[in-house]
Amino acid sequence: VHEPLLSEKDETTVDVREASPLPDDLTREELTLPAPSEPEIARHYTRLSQMNWAIDSGPYPLGSCTMKYNPKFTEDVAADPNAAIHPDRSARAAQGNLELQYRLQEFLGEIGGMDAVTLQPPAGAAGEFTGIAVAKAYHEHHGNDRSEVVIPASAHGTNFATAAMAGYDVVELPSGDDGRVDVEALEAAVGDDTAALMLTNPNTVGLFERDITEIAEIVHDAGGLLYYDGANLNALLGRGRPGDMGFDVMHYNVHKTFATPHGGGGPGAGPVGVVDELAEFLPAPRVRETEEGSGYEPFEPANTIGKVHGFGGNWLVLVKTYAYIARLGDEGLADAAAKAVLNANYLAERIDLDVPYDPFHHEFAATAGDRDAADVAKRMLDFGVHPPTTKWPEMVPEAMLTEPTEIEGQSSLDDLAEAFNLAYADTDDALDAAPSRTAAGRIDQVGAARDPRLSWQALDGE
Amino acid sequence: VHEPLLSEKDETTVDVREASPLPDDLTREELTLPAPSEPEIARHYTRLSQMNWAIDSGPYPLGSCTMKYNPKFTEDVAADPNAAIHPDRSARAAQGNLELQYRLQEFLGEIGGMDAVTLQPPAGAAGEFTGIAVAKAYHEHHGNDRSEVVIPASAHGTNFATAAMAGYDVVELPSGDDGRVDVEALEAAVGDDTAALMLTNPNTVGLFERDITEIAEIVHDAGGLLYYDGANLNALLGRGRPGDMGFDVMHYNVHKTFATPHGGGGPGAGPVGVVDELAEFLPAPRVRETEEGSGYEPFEPANTIGKVHGFGGNWLVLVKTYAYIARLGDEGLADAAAKAVLNANYLAERIDLDVPYDPFHHEFAATAGDRDAADVAKRMLDFGVHPPTTKWPEMVPEAMLTEPTEIEGQSSLDDLAEAFNLAYADTDDALDAAPSRTAAGRIDQVGAARDPRLSWQALDGE
Amino acid sequence: MYKRQERDIRAECSRIFARNDDLVEFLGRGHYGHYVPSVVDHLADRAEFLTSYTQYQPEISQGFLQALFEYQSMLVELTGLPVANCSMYDAATALGEAATLADRVRSTSGDVALVPEQLREGKRAVLENYCAGADLSVETYPMADGNADIDALADRAGDDTVMVYAENPTVRGCIEERLAAVGDLAADADALFVLGSDPVSLSVLQEPASVGADVVVGEAGALGLPTAYGMGLGLFACRDDFLRQVPGRLVGAGEDAAGDRAFTLTLQTREQHIRKERATSNICTNQAWVALRAAIHAATLGPDGLVDLANDCVREAAALADRLDEVKGAAAPVHDRHHVREFAVRVDQPAAAIAGDLEAEGFAVHAIGEHLLQVCVTDLNAGRTDGLVAAFEEVI
Amino acid sequence: MYKRQERDIRAECSRIFARNDDLVEFLGRGHYGHYVPSVVDHLADRAEFLTSYTQYQPEISQGFLQALFEYQSMLVELTGLPVANCSMYDAATALGEAATLADRVRSTSGDVALVPEQLREGKRAVLENYCAGADLSVETYPMADGNADIDALADRAGDDTVMVYAENPTVRGCIEERLAAVGDLAADADALFVLGSDPVSLSVLQEPASVGADVVVGEAGALGLPTAYGMGLGLFACRDDFLRQVPGRLVGAGEDAAGDRAFTLTLQTREQHIRKERATSNICTNQAWVALRAAIHAATLGPDGLVDLANDCVREAAALADRLDEVKGAAAPVHDRHHVREFAVRVDQPAAAIAGDLEAEGFAVHAIGEHLLQVCVTDLNAGRTDGLVAAFEEVI
């Protein structure tokens, strides 16, 4: 299976200066790009799409990345042309969009147990950056010049990168033997320099941080803030709220928690919720009801950090988020979380791999033991499923971090388990040769990185 | 590649009487059907779709069936919820739909050179039935009780079946040596009993009936009507109009001529155009401007044959037809026809098979000679294209009736030619074993017909 | 005709369609709108389905063939009959094809197709055209309080009868209470019993096979299609005996060269492209894609959802009739029967005028007689009945 | 929060969005709407694209990887720079990332990012937040009649400068006439020259590489996206030297086990999931699907269509400015430059009041100063300029 590059089908060069009303010194000379017909375009992208796995193809149990089915009707809601207005309209002329933003702020606040929400961050990592920037603004506003952010070793890479981007030093907190935060280590790590502790709960091996109340107390006593990474919020819905556990700031990953499509990498959305004390630092604008209560208006929080996106973030994604939450309601969200946990536990029970840490919730980190987790994953491709996240988190050797999510039925979980078990038990040769039933064979990623060819121009003459 | 039946994934039985507000003697006892979740449904149909060739997959050169690319925007036009009204609305409340119907009637009349058009027939064959019924009503109205319809041997099977459905005897007209209507044979065949001659022009081997004026004279002199089968109208656009050639009745195949999607078998639409003398017999209602000219109204032609569809036909398809014609305009339609002819001639030039009849227009009937055309076709599947229509028309031995249409570019025509040539030159064993690269191997159609299993219920216990 | 940009055509058509009045439709009479879940559009619109041709090369058409096989299977369950084709154009043409089938399989015994007195005009008109070619005449039998008048039918049916047609629900939404008697009468006359219905009603009403139906026709577009200005999906199912006389396409299961199950169009020797003037029908292009939509819609509902939807159609109709009955000058339902979705309303004033006044208030209903209206309620307009009742009170 | 049916939510949201006024928007300032051909939606909405995840298993993700590779290639052609990533969130965050790149590659020489005096507020605010973490300060350089004031910039740029940012077209739609001079100044200061633009403008304007741009950022959502209430697609391209310092994802061509060309995410050691706090950015989820849309849109236009579109943006802006200039009390364009899409208008009366009055007439324009409006015309609203001119005449 192979589809030529568009440039291999056709390249057309236009003499720009001939065509342009502009003086020659303001224009380029020519432009060379493919000029396919609509039928050629349709076939090109149709074929490409057929060379691509998706949640609509089958199981996609990427632990922590959380890939779940996206209800189709949310696409129709977001496609409403009335919603696709320019962001620079006056508030008076954009009451519909402002109302939806307001409603979603309210939904998210309620779900997270947070007092104020911004929808602006265009992805989870942007949400982290926003949250940490808000925390920083808070400390600075109160005259505290804190320099460190504490992050458990098992945390997402984004946590570390975010803290660094915000100008903080990172203090890495080793995991306890049970896979959770080691409270004593935490006590040792936090202090006057601690701006925040960033925590994922359930954590990245699916374990609930049982000592969360104590953890919150330790951080707060040191004058730090507690940051909730929303990556695993989907496991908690209807059973607990970060705000109620003592978290001060959090971000929501809408594609992980609220089934917005991931689009092969994005767009996402990473709204941030905070407790009252931090609300005045949130990005501008937020949306509130007008005083007369007859409409909605944007407003600038008193000590806003400014902006984290040129406009209001990834609007179309936010609309889908709203539609998803409205569809499920409290009851449906709680069901989704419960079923996600049930499915993870059922699947773990059915596979032959060990799962060192438990009781886990919506995901589990199995270990491939003396097999290479990446090889096992490649072999799973041959059995018609997408494999789990591999070799992460590092606390589990040859980890296969698995999250089937609530959407899989029993037969699909059984298929997944079978793929796990067949691949895990397969011969070394079979694993080395895997995948063998896919559009492309095993790709030499080291080679690709050694000699980067990042455009069709770079392939010319090959 | 295999996707289980929905019933193999799940079957759920509902106790209808328990649930129903109706008395038990008016209801069924139970209902047993699959009850999949939305994710399961999405995956089921996504996988099924991926097991299906389409014009968006690649070349689809089905001669006479005419399969061409359908511009995507026409789907959006047809999806307008404002257009999806109930057919029983008053005319006053349906002015938009009536206007579009009126405009399309006008477009089609102009394209065909016809004085009056009905949009009601829901497919080409239904158009034929309508046209022949109109012809019959015309004859009966004038006191002529004619019993025969003359049809060239090379015509579509629908022509014969239509004439029989309308209660006519079929007189089959053998083709002349040049593949066209034999004028002498025609003179011998028509007479007082002739209600109509049904003709496809260009005919089904792509030849233009050069003697059309003489043919028309012969039929008209005998008191018969000349029926134009619109299957190949796409070859004539911008170069000739059936009305100008002496045809009295015609149908339009909108998916063949105006690129409406064929939907794996339908829906289509088969509008019928007639000359003035026949307008009073068309199905009811048609649409006209109101006398004040401020709006549109349905009306019943004076001696209407009644109805050929419960309502106004396949509305969504008609909307796409309108949008397509509006997009291309006269110029674009003429271009499409010219390019279709050019493409057919280019392709014929590139293949190693003989093409006995020429000069052909938009399609040609190659002959596989001493190879079995159906086997060659199966082998072509392995080379990534859809094969042409095979073994028809019968006047060409082992015919491969090929119509690339205007949408293919040169590289795609070259791919097609290569598939033709590779398959045609392949070994008998390879042809027997073909196809070998498809989701299913060669299917035993004789066996399937011998032991018909037409539902999953019929498979139970297997 | 000058060439225009797609953007301009979209804008133009959008303007044209906006000229349809913004009405709440309480319209039915055999053509129904139910909410079509979004997933139906998204899946049926996949290019591999929408832009494919008839499955002449089954090896690369397994997906659509399987979907149509599943559609046929759903109809087999709903009708209790073992054979369902993979679509006709609409209910009216399916009825026409049933008549020509009757003519073929019962040709020695007569030339009359009996249909109920209360029947959609358009459906009857289509039937007449199909019957004309087969030299059949269409005649009616009377109805009694919205149901087939069994006694009158017994008097009428006889040696000249090749087909007896009944509908359940009837065009006025009434549930037939003595269908088995109709079936018996047809059998006694050696006529085919052709029953008209739709897949939503069939989810709860008596199984056609159990009342002796030989053929079931109807509007399967009640699933999967919006009202779409009358576009439809002809349902056609029948007994095994008629397998080789069925009009339209059939998908069957078979085997491929490797012995694996595979699907294919089958029994094609019935069809026009092979049998020409001796074909069972001239149908070629059918409504395959609409059948796909109906199958997807049915899957989203599942049997529970189908039964719930049908039951709601019964309950909502009864509830709305009760409310309209309270309006002074209106009486509903006219017929003392159980109803599905719709029912007739008797009004003191001229019905056409009232329908016009209701339209001015933003509601569309049928005027079906001098003093008869008809009102249809489904999940789509059930939330707007308050407005309709208020409008009735206003205009009567 | 109670659970609702999809149908009810669709109806509710439809009602909510209908509360946005029905305005003809002449709005731009860096965020543009062009007509997006229907085929873009149909193809990008294919579930295999829309519902896929990041391509961590390239063997079953070749389709999206190739599409992104083609997107990168298109940007390489448009910018003349050899490296383009496969998306950032939007123009503002891409600018922020450019600043942190400058900080990393030029960290020894200073801590100032120089930006034009005339710059979108929001873009600057985002840049400030990115700079804050890197201890950079954002400072402005003056503009002269809508272009960078080269002399003032020469005075300002120096050892403390790590980056000089310019836009072409500027936020007021002016085409910069001395970009090469800006590039020289930046080079002299050993600062990165970061140029902001968009793919439509780049189709005709000077190739960034030819004027010395080190990095190009901007809003690539001018292709493929409607205005979408500000949702965007961050364009990011740069010189080869910075390959291992690029933020965001890169798709590269490589080989599979059979030696066939295959695509994969590459140079991932730059990224947060491997490099953690030493990553080039914290970006993870990006705008891949929007990049796919932009690539499809560009393919539908082809180079001819792109150049035509850009040229129309130049012509329409000039024509509209001429017409508004004739309105008494208005003068346009304010700057004596060539414009793409948009231009400033000086009005005698207070701009905010006039913008409000225009809104009441159904037209949205920007008020950008006490007596300054800004008007943006593209293919989407070019057919409505008569109305805008008439409204100007009415309200002024």
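Residues 22 and 362 of chain C are 7 Å apart (CA to CA).
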